[in-house]
Amino acid sequence: EPIRVGVALSDRSYDILIGRGLIASAGAEIARRLPRVRAAIVSDRNVGGLYSADLSRVLNAAGIGSVAVEVEPGEGTKNFANLEHVVRAVLAARLERGDVVIALGGGVVGDLAGFAAAIVRRGMRFVQLPTSLLAQVDSSVGGKTGINTPEGKNLVGAFHQPSLVIADTGVLDTLPPRELRAGYAEVAKYGLIDDPGFFAWLEANWRGVFSGGPEREHAVATSCRAKARVVAADEHETGERALLNLGHTFGHALEAATGYSQRLVHGEGVAIGMVLAHRFSARMNLASPDDAARVTAHLAGVGLPTELADIEGTLPDADGLMALIAQDKKVSRGTLTFILTHGVGKAFIAKDVPPAAVRDFLADSL
Ligand code: NAD
Ligand code: ZN
């Protein structure tokens, strides 16, 4: 039996199903909720090669005819050219508004396919079949879709909620270990935001999450519940949803500093960013340095980078990093909004962080 997490929105709700081997029942689950639909399966070459044929077969068995649309793997795929490719493939297959776009892949495929679903015929149905840990615990839940432009990441997009999310935790067995660790940073984030019990559970059980024991389903479900709670409270990100950015202000600056390259993938930037957020909070006398040490020990223990020195190559100096932070965040009247913490599981939105204090902290951390 899969674990079921409900996402309650203002006007409707949908299920997230979590369990090992769920692709096998995806056809029945979709057909039960969306009778008589046809489907476009959007995937990247890596994931499509592994799972697209299986999915198409189980859809067929449930009476759902499908076409497959494939894109190249990688962040560079989230662009206008691929959006057009997906949109036109869906139109060429003569899918109608009530038909469904299925995103089978990581966050890149989910964001791209979701945005296509949002705009084709002013909004088609959309089902997420996330295949990376990051996508299962973060990007597939919440309805944010979009693409990148030369001006920046995720600057063009739409809120478009899925009708169903199916997280088959078994497919994570083929995910490259580095991607699994990167997604784990987002799992740990939910503990650090407001669930100290979950963080302590992860400290004791992380090995099972990585090896694919039943701990993995529990970790994914707990993360989805946390994200669903925040999304339900703040569907269009006007307030509390900002807590999900714990570690992301520093993390995004480090991603930008490394050119969004394989020097640092997103979750690794988040891991270092969460450590920095805890250390900076300690320095501002908001939290104990013991909490920062505890967070560092856990993330380093699973093999994530936690120090600026863990990043290969040279980084900008403190002023250079501040310039990147200012680009990412709205600096209003000389103050920064940061997610800081009073300790493990006690994150809060700090609206009046003095940039000079952040700069000096970074200078001392480099
Ligand atoms: P990704 O989609 O690029 O996947 C990572 C890599 O793993 C890719 O090479 C992919 O082909 C491969 N892969 C995925 N699943 C696999 C599997 N089961 N087996 C083997 N290989 C597999 O990256 P990601 O980390 O999943 O997602 C990152 C994207 O998500 C970014 O574009 C980011 O902006 C977006 N994102 C969106 C939201 C949101 O709310 N919409 C939230 C967080 C992140
Ligand atoms: Zn993130």
SSE layout and pairing:
Blueprint: E1 3-8, E2 13-19, H1 26-33, E3 39-44, H2 45-61, E4 66-71, H3 80-92, E5 100-105, H4 107-119, E6 125-130, H5 133-139, E7 144-149, E8 152-159, E9 164-168, H6 177-194, H7 196-211, H8 214-233, H9 248-257, H10 266-283, H11 289-301, H12 318-328, E10 336-341, E11 347-353, H13 355-365
Parallel strand pairs: 2-9, 3-4, 3-5, 5-6, 6-9
Antiparallel strand pairs: 1-2, 7-8, 10-11
Q: What's the helix-strand series?
A: EEHEHEHEHEHEEEHHHHHHHEEH
Distance between the termini: 49 Å
CATH topology of the largest domain: Dehydroquinate synthase-like, alpha domain
Q: Radius of gyration in whole Å, from Cα?
A: 20 Å
DSSP helical segment count: 13
In short:
48% of the residues lie in helices and 19% in strands. The chain is an alpha/beta fold. The protein folds into 2 domains: 3-174, Rossmann fold; 178-365, Dehydroquinate synthase-like - alpha domain (Dehydroquinate synthase-like, alpha domain), CATH 1.20.1090.10.
Structure overview:
This protein is an alpha/beta fold. The chain folds into two domains: 3-174, Rossmann fold (3-Layer(aba) Sandwich); 178-365, Dehydroquinate synthase-like, alpha domain (Up-down Bundle), CATH 1.20.1090.10. It is built from 13 helices and eleven strands. It has helices spanning 26-33, 45-61, 80-92, 107-119, 133-139, 177-194, 196-211, 214-233, 248-257, 266-283, 289-301, 318-328, 355-365; strands at 3-8, 13-19, 39-44, 66-71, 100-105, 125-130, 144-149, 152-159, 164-168, 336-341, 347-353. The protein has a seven-stranded mixed sheet, sandwiched between helices. Strands 7-8 form a two-stranded antiparallel ribbon. A two-stranded antiparallel ribbon has the order 10-11. It is globular, with a radius of gyration of 20 Å. It starts with a strand and ends with a helix. Residues 44, 46-47, 50, 73-75, 78, 105-109, 111, 131-132, 134-135, 138-139, 142, 144, 154, 171-172, 174-175, 179, 266 line the site of nicotinamide-adenine-dinucleotide.
